[in-house]
Amino acid sequence: MPSQAQPESVLTWSDEYSVGIPSLDDQHKVLVSVIGRLQEAMARGLASEELPALIEMLVNYARYHFAWEEQLLESHGFEELSAHRDEHARLTAQVLAFQEKAVGGRLFLGTPVLRFLRNWLIEHIQGTDSHYGTFLAQRGVR
Asked: Which one, of 101, 131, 134, lies nearest residue 116 by Cα?
């Protein structure tokens, strides 16, 4: 009998995602939570009912977080800020495209969408965001 693929576990916060700045980690926890809620809605078969509101929440909070993070990095002279802003813009554009499709009823919340969102967040935090943790900590940011 062929084995069935196991669904990915619901995304939850892990200390391995920490950038070492509690204020930013708290914001990242919110983003992780929203993606986890999307996964849970899909697992319960409620994705179509909950998708538009959750995608809107993700878009709004990501915009808030990115603006806050960019202002913090700018105020401390982070040299990689331009590239960081560009990545934020690309990520925001992709999530806005999901939102447009969700509102129009054209987005199926399946494994590929969830995998993108999960990977986007984790890769962004552990990759891009990890570069500024030490930088900000050396400047007394908590």
From this structure: 101
